[in-house]
Design brief:
This protein is mainly beta and about 120 residues long. The chain contains no helices and eleven strands. The strands form two sheets. Strands 2, 4, 5, 6, 9, 10 and 11 form a seven-stranded mixed β-sheet that branches. Strands 1-3-8-7 form a four-stranded antiparallel β-sheet, with no helix packed on it.
Length: about 120
């Protein structure tokens, strides 16, 4: 299983970014996918999740209305569209999947929201 995030960077408050997570080594279309984030000195927290078909999504209250999760099973990729970014969204963003009791994480991509 390999998960590779991309799309992070430095953005001004109010700006947008789209993160991508390219998956390989498993049947992507069969698995729930999630995005988490971890800010300095804080615990890793769930941001959003999406069912295997994309028909169900779960968005954390802290980002609801600003972030959207989607997936393209033909490309084995899950996305996180982040709009109206705030300084408190600054964190390393990780994608994750779970097979049985085993969690698989990407290496993370840094998102910094600052003027």
């Amino acid at each position: 299983v390999q998960l590779v995030e991309s799309g992070g960077g430095l953005v001004q408050p109010g700006g947008s970014l789209r993160l991508s997570c390219a998956a390989s080594g498993f049947t992507f279309s069969s698995y729930y996918m999630s995005w988490y984030r971890q800010a300095p000195g804080k615990e890793r927290e769930l941001v959003a999740g999406i069912s295997s078909t994309g028909g169900f999504t779960n968005i954390a209250a802290s980002v609801k209305g600003r972030f959207t999760i989607s997936r393209d099973n033909a490309k084995n990729t899950v996305y996180l569209q982040m709009n109206s970014l705030k300084p408190e969204d600054t964190a390393v963003y990780y994608c994750k999947t779970q097979r049985g009791s085993e969690n698989y994480w990407g290496q993370g991509t840094q998102v910094t929201v600052s003027s």
